[in-house]
Write a structure and sequence with these properties.
By secondary structure, the protein is α+β, with helices and mostly antiparallel strands. 33% of the residues lie in helices and 20% in strands. It starts with a helix and ends in a 5-residue tail after the last helix. 41% of the residues are buried. The structure holds uridine 5'-triphosphate.
Length: 405
């Protein structure tokens, strides 16, 4: 963007502070800053953040482990046929910062092996390869990185020869960034030539995929379903034919793998209905009375904990991308370059980060099939180093499932 156009744009938007050091920047710095400004999603910035008041919550009907076991062959046949016909793609969400794990490296590069290396990415590729081998199918694997970890992630996969997955079926794309604003609504600078920004949340994946031209590419390959999953659950089944078949046969626009909550107050998002639409309610949004309600068979009424493994129909995602997801604002401490040129690491929250969330996609999809899986077989998230949902607990679960460490 030319300087004149840039100035005019920022005047219109009331954000001319971004050019405070323009005069000091060399050609590279100017180009960098102009590029970042050109990428700002102004519509998103001006949208009010969702306030979080919930509608009327009710339990949702899903397929139980027993029901799935009884219809396993039927579901598997439909899912395998769809996979062989190239109708599904896998989307690995690896754009997060993994702050709780306390490592700066991309989370997937973490080595969970004991007697030999076993990287999180490697285990996920193994899980997917089991399906491509069993179904004799090619499944495109789309890996979402962020600006902060893109190069390292690509280099890591390349140096490990993609863990044997066909190179031509792996596609990397970068998640878009959202500028951070101060409490007064002004976008913050991180350096003279850089905006303060953060990844735009795990709901940003489809819009980022479209921007990278990959949605188009997948359409051309005949992809009708996307299986989206988190980087940190090393036990998960990816493009599970039984899940895919059940979701296709249900006629619903999306499917969610769920596990029964371990306890009524477990800190996990719960799939339910909100004003008649599927929705994920966070554990802190349900009170004790609701969390402990039980059905006649003794099962919790709100028992379906989500594990961040979803299926979405491609045409529905296109609609959601056009309509846009609710925007969530989080008040944070954001390091920034002050007008006097000093770099400030604030002790108090001084601004907002914005993100969209994948759980809102379930609601926007309009319908969702909860598909219950056995926790000990399919859910070993790595969030922390030790304790609950940690490297230690995931190792234990991997061993129980016959994975050599
Ligand atoms: P989490 O919300 O658990 O975040 O992400 P995280 O970054 O992995 O870990 P913490 O909270 O900083 O410790 C759930 C999934 O969504 C992805 C993550 O990579 C993970 O697979 N994600 C999250 C993104 O791809 N982009 C984001 O902006 C946020």
């Amino acid at each position: 963007m030319e300087e004149k156009a840039l100035r005019q744009l920022l005047e219109e938007k009331g954000q001319t502070q971004l050019l405070q050091w323009w005069g000091e920047l060399d050609a590279n710095g100017r180009e960098k800053l102009a590029r970042q400004i050109a990428c700002i999603d102004w519509e998103q910035l001006s949208r009010p953040a969702s306030v979080g008041a919930r509608g009327k919550i009710a339990p949702i009907e899903g397929l139980s482990v027993e029901e799935i076991a009884a219809r396993r062959a039927e579901f598997a046949a439909v899912g395998q046929a769809a996979l062989r016909a190239g109708k599904a793609a896998a989307v690995l969400l690896a754009g997060g910062q993994g702050t709780r794990l306390g490592s700066d490296a991309p989370k997937g590069t973490f080595n969970i092996g004991i007697t030999r290396p076993l990287y999180i990415f490697e285990q996920l590729i193994r899980n997917l390869t089991e399906v491509t081998n069993a179904c004799n199918a090619r499944i495109p694997l789309l890996i979402m990185t962020s600006e902060k970890n893109d190069e390292e992630t690509r280099a890591f996969f390349a140096s490990h020869e993609y863990f044997g997955y066909p190179r031509e079926d792996i596609f990397f794309f970068r998640q878009a960034m959202s500028p951070c604003v101060g409490l007064n609504g002004k976008i913050l600078l991180e350096a003279k030539d850089a905006l303060a920004s953060s990844p735009n949340g795990n709901g940003g994946w489809y819009a980022s995929l479209e921007r990278a031209g990959l949605a188009e590419k997948m359409r051309a390959r005949g992809v009708a379903w996307y299986n989206v999953f988190a980087v940190d659950n090393v036990l998960q089944r990816i493009c599970d034919p039984v899940f895919l078949g059940a979701t296709i046969l249900s006629g619903k626009a999306s499917g969610a793998k769920v596990v029964q909550k371990a306890a009524p107050r477990e800190r996990v998002g719960v799939l339910c209905l909100e004003d008649g639409l599927p929705a994920v309610v966070e554990y802190y949004e349900i009170d004790d009375a609701m969390a402990t309600l039980r059905a006649a068979d003794g099962k919790l009424l709100y028992r379906y904990g989500v594990i961040l493994n979803y299926l979405f129909r491609a045409d529905v995602l296109e609609r959601i991308a056009r309509e846009r997801l609710p925007l969530h604002a989080a008040k944070k401490k954001i390091p920034y370059l002050a007008p006097d040129g000093t770099f400030v690491e604030p002790a108090e929250e001084n601004g907002y980060k914005f993100e969209t969330l994948i759980l809102d996609m379930v609601r926007c999809a309009g319908s969702c099939l909860p598909f219950e899986v056995v926790r000990e077989r399919e859910f070993a998230p790595i969030k922390n180093r030790t304790g609950v949902d940690s490297v230690e607990s995931a190792r234990e679960l991997l061993k129980q499932n016959g994975v050599e460490l």
